[in-house]
Specification:
Helices cover about 45% and strands about 10% of the residues. The chain has about 475 residues and is of the alpha/beta class. The protein folds into 4 domains: about 70 residues, no CATH class; about 80 residues, Arc Repressor Mutant, subunit A (Orthogonal Bundle); about 70 residues, no CATH class; about 220 residues, Vaccinia Virus protein VP39 (Rossmann fold), CATH 3.40.50. The strands form 2 sheets. It has a 7-stranded mixed beta sheet with strand order 6-5-4-7-8-10-9, sandwiched between helices. Strands 1-3-2 form a 3-stranded antiparallel beta sheet. The structure holds S-adenosylmethionine. The site of S-adenosylmethionine has 18 residues, from helix 13 and helix 15. One of its GO terms (biological process) is methylation. It comes from Piloderma croceum (strain F 1598).
Length: about 475
């Protein structure tokens, strides 16, 4: 039998050959890590995405296999310096400073001067990152952006950022905002994870007020903290980060996993807790024959109206898209919805609260009403052995030997966001088993799951059952 080492090596070589063949077929070359990041025409290629995942899984498993375990575990314990360094990068505008310096890079004494910090210390931070393939040290003490660091670029000039720092992340990809949010308030809270889990008063709590976040920031839930005077920059950055996540995540699992076309002309889709409506916009573009109501808290609605005025004013004017104030912990006023849709809502709430939201929707549902949740579905690191196979879409392709069933680090984004939710809100992303347990007794039944290799998010479709 092939050893794990050579099986991983085979996966790598066949995967790399496939990737190069796909690029060659399109007359393109694989992007250099030294060039700035730009979305490419092949980014959405299904077969490229699938092969890339296998290569990532094989490469990281190979490292886990060959690296001496004491080195792996000791380095893992030190890895918090990476996000701490990234926070410096984002706060000191280092990506933008190096973009303005151009491909010849900048010496640390100039970087220090331009960002207003100590050149030697900034240099050590950049070297740590360059050693991890984020930035390049192109000559001793001279750094430049590379493909990975440039993904943090807001695209704005340093002068413009300094002139209006609070607006730094407005109208950007949101990646820098997301990294800023994760490495600032969430990382600062995350160091209290053990304290929270080992304290009997907080260990099993489902309250946002008892989340790890509260321990760090003085018994205040994350969202309330962000809305406090003095946190205006953080709040605006959080908004930009969430919008960025929406635009970065491929929406095809949402758009294709349910037969939206089968809904009658003018059928009503309710985007519950829809934010400014960025996901309704995706649906609206694909299915303009439907009507949409975005339900939100009152303070979000003016931003939502501004968003639609800039993106699809006609939809607002014609009434095809409407905003309605609604608290999803109160009874649902809309009784004729074809679909209740929620993206990234249920993951904000621990089971007790999530069940309340689901029950209110069920109480106002017609027998034909569908509930669609668009969220991460946490893949088990173990094989499910055919469990849940009666639900279409529940089975993921079997990972080739000797890869982990969830392809290991390919699933990092999901398991890390799951912990992010625990730290911030005492909430969670869910496995299929946890999702089935969650809806038990709410009057909803999971009937199918839509996936796409281009996005880690899934579309989970529920139908009504007798309560
Ligand atoms: C993570 S965001 C998701 C927004 C949107 N669904 C999206 O995917 O872009 C959670 C949203 O829930 C809204 N929200 C929080 N509590 C709410 C409540 N009790 N009733 C209605 N909306 C609420 C927030 O205002 C926020 O816009």
């Amino acid at each position: 039998m092939t050893t794990p080492l050579s099986a991983l090596s085979n996966l790598l070589s066949s995967g790399i050959a496939t990737i190069e063949a796909i690029y060659a077929k399109h007359g393109a070359t694989f992007p250099s890590i030294d060039e700035p990041f730009r979305p490419g025409p092949l980014d959405g290629d299904e077969s490229l995405c699938e092969t890339t995942d296998l290569v990532i899984a094989a490469a990281s498993q190979l490292i886990a296999l060959v690296k001496p375990p004491p080195r792996t575990i000791v380095e893992s314990g030190l890895l918090f310096h990476l996000p701490a360094s990234l926070q410096v990068v984002v706060t000191a505008n280092l990506t933008e400073i190096l973009r303005e310096a151009g491909p010849q890079g900048l010496h640390i004494k100039d970087i220090g001067e331009r960002c207003g910090s100590d050149p030697q210390k900034i240099g050590r931070i950049l070297r740590c990152l360059a050693t991890n393939h984020i930035f390049r040290e192109i000559a001793p003490d001279v750094f430049a952006n590379n493909r990975i660091s440039s993904a943090l670029d807001t695209g704005k000039s340093v002068a413009a950022i300094k002139a209006d720092p609070i607006a730094k992340h407005d109208n950007t990809s949101g990646i820098s905002a997301l990294v800023g949010h994760s490495t600032d308030e969430i990382m600062k809270a995350g160091v209290y994870l053990t304290d929270n889990l080992m304290d009997p008063k907080t260990a099993a709590s489902q309250e946002a007020l008892d989340a790890v976040f509260s321990r760090a920031f003085g018994r205040v839930p994350c969202f309330e903290f962000l809305e406090k005077p003095g946190n205006e920059y953080r709040l605006r950055r959080f908004g930009a980060a969430m919008h960025g996540v929406s635009s970065a995540v491929a929406s095809d699992a949402l758009v294709t996993s349910f037969d939206w076309k089968s809904l009658q002309q003018d059928a009503l889709v309710v985007d519950v807790g829809g934010g400014v409506g960025s996901w309704t916009l995706q649906l609206m573009k694909a299915y303009p024959h439907l009507r949409y109501v975005i339900q939100e808290r009152s303070r979000v609605i003016p931003d939502g109206i501004k968003f639609w005025e800039n993106t699809d004013l006609e939809a607002l004017k014609s009434g095809r898209v409407k905003f309605k104030e609604h608290d999803f912990f109160e009874p649902q006023p809309i009784k004729d919805a074809a679909v209740f849709f929620m993206r990234c809502i249920i993951h904000d709430w621990a089971d007790g609260y999530a069940k309340k939201i689901l029950k209110h929707l069920r109480a106002s549902a017609l027998p034909s009403t569908k509930l669609i949740l668009y969220d991460y579905l946490v893949p088990y690191a173990a094989s499910t052995g055919g469990l849940f196979s009666e639900i279409p879409g529940s089975q993921v392709p079997v990972a080739p030997y000797p890869l982990l069933p969830n392809l290991g680090s390919v699933s990092n984004q999901i398991v890390l966001v799951d912990l992010q939710m625990m730290v911030a809100l005492n909430s969670q992303e869910r496995t299929i088993g946890q999702l089935i347990d969650l809806v038990d007794g709410t009057g909803w039944k999971l009937v199918s799951i839509g996936r796409s290799s281009r996005s880690a998010m899934c579309s989970m479709v529920f139908e009504t059952v007798a309560i």
